[in-house]
Design goal:
Elements (H helix, E strand, L loop, with lengths): L14 H8 L1 H17 L5 H13 L4 H17 L5 H17 L13 E6 L6 H14 L4 E4 L6 H14 L3 E2 L7 H14 L4 E4 L9 H17 L6 E7 L5 H13 L3 E5 L9 H9 L3 E5 L7 E3 L2 H8 L7
Parallel strand pairs: 1-4, 1-5, 2-3, 2-4, 5-6, 6-7
Antiparallel strand pairs: 7-8
Helix pairs in contact: 1-12, 2-3, 3-4, 4-5, 4-11, 5-12, 6-7, 8-9, 10-11
């Protein structure tokens, strides 16, 4: 789809420097740890690699991903006869970017109109705000958008999405509080089709992922959409709050099992030192990160670029 194609100038106006600034908390934590690590070790021995693995784990990179990064870094350093900390650090960056780039691609749905994006996630992760930012992003690219207020569990959620719709100039299909969320999704898809809109974004209830009724509701939404369009939803995006750290893995596991999540949007990276969790998520689930949220403004929802992210996440050593 045209609105998902990477543009060389997309998000580039702010430059990598802005992302670098927004990931400061995670980078400072890593900078302190890396500085201490290389001061404590004179050479690249087993203890250095053990301490490096511990540092990555405490930075929420996750046990599996940390072990893999260190194993590959050790192999590369040995093969290339790397002897300087800067060279080792660059290898760590490359291995992180490789993990983040290795997620399974989204299924192709060329020509789908509307492209149906089902957005899931627990309360408080910034789901509805992310939907509004996505809608504005698509609209700014010339795409017509419909929003479905499928979080009928909370009146405030419906009202919030309606306010966002008015603000950015896109229609919102909504019903009363307590209405069947699947019926809202159904009506929204019928409406988007009749208007020949390019994108339909469906909001959903965000009660805790351990709530079985919620998961059944999500499954029903998926079934109802599928009756209108066998390929719908074309994408199931989960919104995760980076500040929850490793708990994000548990959330993704539950939603993945229920509705088959195939993309991620990770929010609040500007307010946490747990930015490394993106690597843990992709390594474990092979689900691509599509967008990251690094602030409150519309343009603070950025298309995810693994190389840019790792460059902003992992600091240079002092004096470099």
């Amino acid at each position: 789809m045209a609105f998902f194609k990477r543009k060389h100038n997309d998000d580039a106006a702010d430059g990598a420097g802005r992302l670098h600034e927004r990931l400061a908390k995670t980078r400072r934590a890593l900078a302190t740890g890396l500085g201490s690590l290389f001061r404590a070790h004179q050479g690249f021995d087993d203890s250095l690699y053990d301490d490096l693995e511990d540092l990555l784990i405490t930075s929420d990179v996750g046990v599996e991903a940390s072990r893999l990064i260190v194993e590959r870094t050790r192999e590369h350093a040995t093969q290339q006869k790397i002897r300087e900390p800067a060279g080792l650090l660059e290898t760590v960056r490359a291995e992180m970017a490789d993990i983040l780039s290795a997620a399974a691609p989204l299924p192709a749905h060329a020509g789908a109109k509307p492209y149906v994006l089902l957005v899931v996630g627990v309360n408080g992760v910034g789901k509805t705000t992310t939907i509004a930012k996505l809608a504005k992003r698509f609209a700014d690219q010339g795409q017509s958008v419909t929003l479905a207020a499928g979080d009928t569990f909370r009146a405030a959620a419906v009202e919030q999405l309606e306010r966002w719709g008015e603000r950015i100039g896109v229609p919102v299909v909504a019903q009363q509080t307590g209405a069947d969320a699947a019926a809202v999704a159904h009506d929204a898809l019928v409406s988007a089709r009749s208007k020949q809109h390019d994108v339909l974004i469906v909001d959903t209830a965000g009660r805790q992922h351990t709530h079985s009724d919620l998961m059944e509701q999500l499954k029903k939404i998926r079934r109802v959409l599928g009756k209108l369009d066998p390929a719908a939803p074309h994408e199931v995006m989960q919104v995760l709050d980076a500040g929850t750290g490793q708990n994000a893995l548990s959330q993704l596991q539950h939603f993945q099992k229920a509705v088959g999540v195939n993309s991620l949007s990770v929010t609040k990276l500007d307010g946490t030192a747990k930015g490394g969790v993106l690597i843990a998520l992709v390594q474990k689930f092979r689900v691509p990160v599509r967008y990251i949220g690094v602030g409150e403004k519309f343009d603070d929802l950025r298309r995810f670029d693994p190389d840019e992210f790792v460059a902003a996440l992992v600091p240079d050593l002092p004096g470099e």
